[in-house]
Amino acid sequence: MFPLLLENFDEVVAIYTKEAKNKQEEVIKNEGLTYKFNSKYFISNENDFDMAFKVINRAIDESNEDFIVDLSHGFRHLPILAIISILSQNLQNSIKIKHIFFAKEIIKFKEYEIIDLKEFLDIANLSFILENFNQNYTLTKIEFKNEAYNALAKGLENLSHNILSNSIQNLYKEKLLKSTLNSLEQISKNELFDCFSSNIDNTINHLNYLLSLEKDPTYIRLYKFSKDLASKGYILNATTIFYEAAGIYSIQVVSNSSSEVKRLLQKFYKSETRNKDYLLSNFCYSFIKNGQVNRKNKRIEKVLSYKFDKAIRDYLNLKPNYKKLKRFYKDLDSFRNNLAHANSGEIIEDPYEKLNSFLESFGKFISSDFDKKDKNVL
């Protein structure tokens, strides 16, 4: 195999031991070739793992251009060290590695079966990306020669950016989840991925779960996203999304006070009013939290006339859980503001547990009497 490399490539860097050098010098001499071994890449003691790894690292690190790795003549642990070096130094730019050759000798010195392990490296890198995404929605940016892998990595990166910026609704509006899932399902048909099937299956299942949330009312979808993000440690993201879920749920609660209130709120939502989503949720959230809204704010009048205030209050006061819901909204408002402003109000010793407590309480509210009517007000 070594003579084939010398005949086909302009620059060949041999990482060698004394025994390997002696043997290969004889081989290339018989082939009528010459090669000067560079002592910089000499492994004087192959049992000195640290030294051997440094030599391999140096050779790979000094390669500024695309390169090919041939493991055909590696012995025992040396090919493994080479693979580790390749992974550690080129994880984010494995496109530099054009091939990883391994030659299987069929007829001595005459016939070889050349196996390219490069695709296995790409598959391992892609599996690494999937595992990161599954665990915490973050990605290591890696370029692939295979365009299908690049398309999937780009799709996952797009999902990551949207999820971690709380742009949840855009996932469904732009069909980002569906297109990424399609890419993943196509790649999963590659038999080489069988050894990484658990990572692929986990990602497919999770994307299908996120897609299934599109059928839920918006506040339930955001509530479930909040729980998911909280479980991954994104407490502030989870809190802000949960706050939006609570705001949208408050619209449902207030809307159910009467058919006329529901009709007028729906009419307002369909209007061209600027910031209508915020005004609507703020109006209903404030009404539940305070039993009234700030009528001095002229924009509030655009949402719903003061003539309906008493009817809404009467409806809420008849609900057995209203006092608890009112307290819940006040506490959540305080928690969100405090967390978003770096504990400027009071120190929250365990924000994860505190948020989980809110999420559990909210789960009980949305399955209670408040939730028996229309779940899709907007």
TrEMBL record:
InterPro entries: CRISPR-assoc_prot_DxTHG_CS. It comes from the Bacteria. NCBIfam families: CRISPR_DxTHG (TIGR02549). This is CRISPR-associated DxTHG motif protein.
